[in-house]
């Protein structure tokens, strides 16, 4: 490895360390307690060192937001063809809700940072209904989307329910979220 590649690798490692520490600070102390000075103190570096990596705290918040949202809702292809389409939809939505529960801190962070980045309407900006609906349509198997066209409002209803659930992730406990998930899946299953 040449010297330039080594220094770039070390720079990326330090940036990751900065983002992870910022993440922890924001989740533990809140966004409005976050500052470059506090971050530098926690990392045991000078603020001058931090400014070599990020021009200000907003740049850190935006990078952290992008890094976190980029990992949400990534599932393998889990759709065996022998299941009924409506069962596939419910199974997939269940996976999405489980992901929200398991990665509660990530969703909480996205909601918190979204309030700062998109103060007018963070939920609509963070995960707008139209792209989420499109995401479901692109990800679900064709037979499920065909079923949804027959029941045109189902995917819209499911999208709104998932977005509402996402809003609750930041404020509810895991047991409460699991109970909400059961109720949501029950209401979705009644659609069929």
UniProtKB/TrEMBL annotation:
The HTH tetR-type domain, residue ranges: 12-72
DNA-binding region per UniProt: 35-54
Keyword annotations: DNA-binding
Pfam family, one: TetR_N
Domain of life: Bacteria
SUPFAM superfamilies, per the entry: Homeodomain-like
PROSITE patterns linked: HTH_TETR_2 (PS50977)
InterPro entries registered for this protein in UniProt: Homeodomain-like_sf (IPR009057), HTH_TetR (IPR001647)
Record-given protein name: TetR/AcrR family transcriptional regulator
């Amino acid at each position: 490895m040449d010297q330039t590649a080594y220094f770039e690798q070390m720079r990326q490692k330090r940036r990751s360390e900065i983002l992870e520490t910022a993440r922890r600070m924001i989740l533990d102390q809140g966004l409005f307690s976050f500052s470059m000075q506090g971050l530098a103190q926690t990392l045991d570096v000078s603020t001058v060192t931090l400014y070599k990596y990020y021009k200000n705290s907003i740049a850190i918040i935006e990078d952290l937001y992008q890094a976190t949202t980029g990992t949400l809702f990534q599932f393998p292809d889990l759709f065996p063809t022998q299941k009924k389409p409506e069962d596939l939809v419910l199974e997939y939505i269940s996976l999405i809700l489980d992901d929200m529960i398991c990665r509660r801190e990530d969703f909480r962070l996205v909601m918190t940072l979204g309030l700062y980045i998109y103060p007018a309407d963070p939920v609509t900006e963070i995960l707008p209904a139209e792209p989420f609906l499109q995401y479901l349509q692109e990800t679900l198997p064709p037979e499920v989307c065909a079923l949804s066209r027959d029941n045109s409002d189902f995917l819209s209803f499911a999208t709104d329910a998932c977005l509402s659930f996402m809003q609750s992730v930041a404020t509810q406990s895991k047991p409460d979220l699991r109970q909400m998930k059961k109720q949501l899946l029950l209401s979705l299953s009644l659609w069929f």
